Structure formats: structure tokens, C-alpha cells
Amino acid sequence: MTYHAGKYDVAVVGAGHAGIEAALAAARLGCSTAVFMLNMDAVGNLPCNPSIGGSSKGHLVREIDALGGAMGKIADLTTLQSRMLNRGKGPAVHSPRAQVDRRLYSAAMKSLLEGQVNLHIRQAEIIAVEPVGKGYAITTRLGAVYTADCVILATGTFLAGRIHIGDCSYDSGPDGMFPAVDLAKSLKKMGLPLRRFKTGTPPRIHRASVDFSKLELQEGEMPPAAFSFSKEEVLSALDKGYGTKTNPLIPNFSGELTLCHIGYTTEKTAETIRQNIYRSPLYSGKIEGTGPRYCPSIEDKITRFPDKKRHQIFLEPCGEDTQELYLQGVSSSLPEDVQIAVVRSIEGLENAVFTRPAYAIEYDCVDPLAMNASLEFLNFPRLFGAGQFNGSSGYEEAAAQGLLAGINAARKVMGKPPVILPRSNSYIGTLADDLVTKGCSDPYRMMTARSEYRLLLRQDNADRRLTPLGYEIGLVNEERYDKFREKLSQIQMEKQRAAKLRIPCTEQLKALCEDFGQALQGSFTLEQLLKRPRLTYENLAPFDQERPELPAEIFEAVEIDIKYAGYIARQEAAVHEASRLEEKQLPANIDYAQIGGLRLEAQEKLAAARPQNLGQAGRISGVTPADVAVLIVWLGK
Q1: pLDDT tens readout for residues 207-264
Q2: How far apart are CA 409 and CA 427, in angstroms?
């Protein structure tokens, strides 16, 4: 027996990182919203690794925050240790990464959902989603039927989830939770193009069983690399007692449990894996799903790179109130006894005691080519997908899609046009565009190399790129926007000061330049000096007597803008050129088979993807520049 339990503007299925951002965005934009989850104690769970950010992923988190999302603030609130990766390289690839307290992160996200106006949270297994009128009906295991104008599917790895550990395989979601089997059947019946992907996790071990004297210490940075541009809000929450006790955002923090360590595999590790590789379901053919290309298991590493003598292993804390350590780099689906032998072959882990074994998990996800750039399904209006359900990999990619889907579902309800983020203004836009135009044959992971505009899309300027849009949409409030405008004003004033301030050529300044292999004659403006390689605000400080008291981020922004001005101008010109194609819209009802001169493959690919503009059409696999030229002529007629 079923009964009608309620009506919502937006219903979100799943409360992982995608579902959280989707539900918060829709509710904050004024829609009555419900989010359904299998276990309310697993909101924002971090089943793979207890960290947020990383190379390119940190860019995504900062963009989420710039638009008004939640991930960055909660990550800052629950940080144990943080670092800015790739500092030795150019600013385009600088990426913040933080170790977070796994349980506190989940609890903080749950609290955020519970306190959000317009948002109802429900622990319920959704077993069916069906079109009803202009919207959808979603049915729970207990027979409750909810209707919604828009539905967002953010099922993560739960959809028909199946765990593999050696010869042992069983239906399950991550962390021992039950899977969404009936929902997978319902979505297949509805006609969604589902396929099978796979991911994995490493083992966890007890801290007391580790000999840290044999491992390398990896400390966090001070001052820490934060994600949120609203540092005042994060610090205010910390002052009230929220978040971790040993958070590095707090001055004079301390905490031995927040330290990370590095170890290395040995020849014994490789030999143990080679002798038991036949017992891995990954190699026996038991696993059907496609795994992530850029996050291989330890057995994959040993097999694919036989000449590499050792692989790094990172020991990272799961939280400040737990003794569990996460072994990044030892993802595996080998039998438990082999996993124990593998871990104990690593120096420092000879007596390691397991708390949880590693496992591989297969799950159903959708082909993202079935969606448009707003993450709405082409053949199922008002149905959206987000996160690993869309074929991506990673918490940050999921949260970014969830935010975009939540915004567009709310705007659909309100009769407003969707927000389509172009590749030229964000990694979120690049992520969405890649998924819906190129698709993915394995779990999609964001990388800085995926963007042709990465010097423009730096993590430090995410607010300058996206906060005005967040304010326009309605996710950034007036107070935050006023502070943002004040920051822009400070940057502009400091640029003007740097252009006017002349610094005399003293012996000390000459010596500094000579240390960097540069000759200096005559006086220069601060701007001219900053354009020189290796000269920075920091090492020029003794020669700048008029420097105002400004936040470090202002000096960072000005220095990058000045030092890379020529390269930035070149990329902006490329964006302008590319935008000409993006502006040429393609009618939604084109019959590509009737366009003369268009190759058969292009007709099929274009008809399936239904690109919204010429730029998007040109990025579809199988569509050539000649095909785009045909479309330009056809549009001209």
C-alpha cells in the first residue's frame, strides 16, 4: 500500500556531497525542498579519504564557495591539517588541500541541512522515480509517495552497489550501508542509459600499531590554506565551539593526531601482490565496472609500473577523536589476508593492526551525454543528475555538480533560464561541459590540464570570477557581497599605487636582483619590479616604505595580475575568440539529417547530444571542424 506523503518543488535523492549542495541551493533560492538519504548519520560521508581539495579539486571547492556553496566552509571548520599544493610551480596549478575530521565534517553538514529554511530531510530508501504530469513521483520502501516539480538524482556509489574483497562479493553501499537496488531497476525501466563503474578504498589501521620513527613526517602549512573566502564566518563558528579542537585556523593550535606521515612500498610489497594477483577480482574478471584511470589500486600500480621500485603511501588521520589512520595509495580489492601482508611489508607498518579492510565497489551511473549543460536530462525534462551518478569521481566534482543542479532545478521551478557556466570562467563549467559533450569512459576526474584557460581559472581568483554571479543568482548575501566589493577596491587601489611608486636603485636592491641573475640600473616602479622573475611583494618589502596594511590575499592578487599580465591578456583574447562560437545558438529542434554536407557520424552525434551552441557542438567527439563549418553556413541561411 502506498500513500501520498507530500509535495515539493525540488526533491533530491541522496545526501552525499552532490545531494547536500543541490538541496541547500534549491532551498536557499526559495523552493520547498526535500532531501532523501538511506542513513541520516552518513550525511556528507567521506568513505574514500578524509580530505577535501587537492590538485584542481581545490579549485572546484573555492569556486563552490565563491558561488555561495557549503563545502569550503565546512571543510575549513573541520580541518586538521592543510597545505597549498604545487607551490613550486606557477599560480595556475596552486591547489589547497585539507585533512578533515571525517565524523565532524559529516555532523556539521547534517546540522547545516537541519537548520536550512525550506529544507526537509528524510531518512528513507527511494525505490522508484516515475514521471507524473509535468513532474515526478518518488516512492519510498515504506510506501510513502512524494511528488516534486523537479528531481535531482545524486545517488553516489549506492545505486546497485556491490562490494568486492577477493573472492567475497556482496550487494552493499559504501561503509557497510545497504545499496539502492530497486531504484536502479526503476531508473532502467524509465529509460535512463545506465552503465557500470567501479571505485575503491584503502584499508584503515590502528594508530598505536604504527612505528612512526620509520616514516617521514608531513606537517601542514602555517598559516593554513583555507578554502572559504568568508574567513570571518568560519572563524566565528570556531569561536563558538564548532569544528575541531585542533583546527589550524585557530592561532597557536596544536595536536599530535593531526600529523600526517609518508611511507613507501618495498620489493616485498610488489612480490606479495604479484604472487596473489590471481586472487584480485579486478584481474579475475569478477569486476565488470570500469575503474578510475587516475586513481589506480595498489595491485594496478605494481602491475602497470613493474620497473618502479617503490610507491608513496600517505598515512592520514581520520579525526582527532579516533585512532584510525587512512592509508592513501593502498586502494585494493585483494583478499583481506593479502591486504594485511601487503601493508605489513611497508617499513613502519610491520605490526599494523587493521580496523577496516580495503574494498572495491561497483555501482550504476548514467551516461552524462544524456544531459545538457544545466545537468537536466534531454529526454526527461525536470529530472537532473549530479555527482558520481553522472560518471564523475571525487567529492569535489560531486559537490560542484550538485550546486549547479540545485541552482538550475530551482530556476526551472521559478520559470527562469538555466545557469550555464562557460568553460572560460570556471572549472565547474569545464567539468559540466566535458561530461555532457565528451562523456566519460571511466570515472571522470578534474585536472588543471583539462582547462584551456587555466591561467585565468586560478584558485586565488575564484571569487573575482564567480561571486558576482552567486550574488545575482541569490546565493551570496548582501554582507558578503559588500566585503567582496571592498576587496576589489583594495586590489585596484594597490595596482594604482604599484604603478606610481618609484623605488630607488639602492645597493641593497641591486644585490637582491643580482642574486636572481638580474642587472638593475636606475629607479623602477614597484609594478616594473614585480614583473621581474622571482621578485615578489615579500622580498621587495624592505624597499617599499609606503606599503599599506592589507590582507595577504590582496598582495597575492595584485602580484599575480602584474607578473602574468601578458599571458593573462593572451588567454583573455583566446576566450573572446572562442566566445564567438559560443554565442551562435543552435535551435533545439534541428533535424541534423536534413543538413546537406554534414557527415553521417556528425549527424548522429549531434542529434544525440543536441548541443546548445556551435562551441559546444565542436567539442563533441566525432564532430570535426569541417562539420562546424557546415553548421555555420546552415545557420547563415
Answers
A1: 999 999 999 999 888 777 889 998 777 777 777 777 777 777 765 555 554 689 999 9
A2: 20
Residue 201 sits at φ, ψ, to 5 deg, of -130, 160
The DSSP bridge pattern shows strands 354-356 and 324-328 to be unpaired
CB 138 within 8 A of CB 128: yes
Of 433, 412, 422, nearest to 469 by C-alpha is 422
Residue type, 148: A
Query: Phi and psi for 474 in degrees, rounded to 5?
Result: 120, 10
Per-residue CA distances from 188 to 124, 194, 290, 393 (Å)? 20, 7, 19, 22
Neighbours of 341 (CB within 10 A): 17
Determine the straight-line distance between the first and last CA of the chain, rounded to whole angstroms: 58
Residue 403's φ and ψ, nearest 5 degrees, are -60, -45
Q: Which residue has the cell 600499531?
A: 209
* Angstrom distance (rounded) from CA 474 to CA 481: 11
pLDDT given at position 73: 94
Residue 496, by phi and psi: left (phi above 0), alpha (psi -120 to 50) or beta? alpha
Rounded CA-CA distance 484/482 in Å is 5
Residue 556 CA to chain centroid, in angstroms? 24
Cβ atoms 35, 59 nearer than 8 A: no
b/e code 560-577 from CB counts within 10 Å (16+ = b): bbbbbeeebeebeeebee
Return mean pLDDT, the chain. 92
Residue 486 has which C-alpha cell?
Answer: 571592498
| Residues in Cβ contact with 483 at an 8 Å cutoff, skipping those fewer than 6 apart | 230, 232
- Please give the pLDDT value at position 499: 96
* Listed residue (164, 65, 41) closest to 114, CA to CA: 41
Q: Nearest CA to 290 among 509, 440, 429, 397?
A: 440
Q: How far apart (Å, rounded) are the C-alpha atoms in residues 29 and 216?
A: 47
Report DSSP state, residue 436: I
Residues of the chain with pLDDT under 50: 257
Name the DSSP letter for residue 68: T
Cell numbers linked to 120: 526537509
The DSSP 8-state label assigned to residue 220 in this structure reads P
Q: Which whole-number Å values give the CA distances from 253 to 79, 224, 227, in the listed order?
A: 12, 11, 18
Question: 177: phi > 0 → left, psi -120 to 50 → alpha, else beta; which?
Answer: beta
Evaluate the CA torsion angle 22, 28, 33, 36 in order and state its sign: positive
C-alpha 594/C-alpha 634 separation (Å) is 10
The length of the chain in residues reads 637
Residue 128 — φ and ψ, nearest 5°?
-155, 140
Taking residue 232's Cβ as centre, other Cβ atoms within 10 Å add up to 12
Q: What are phi and psi of 123, to 5 degrees?
A: -90, 110
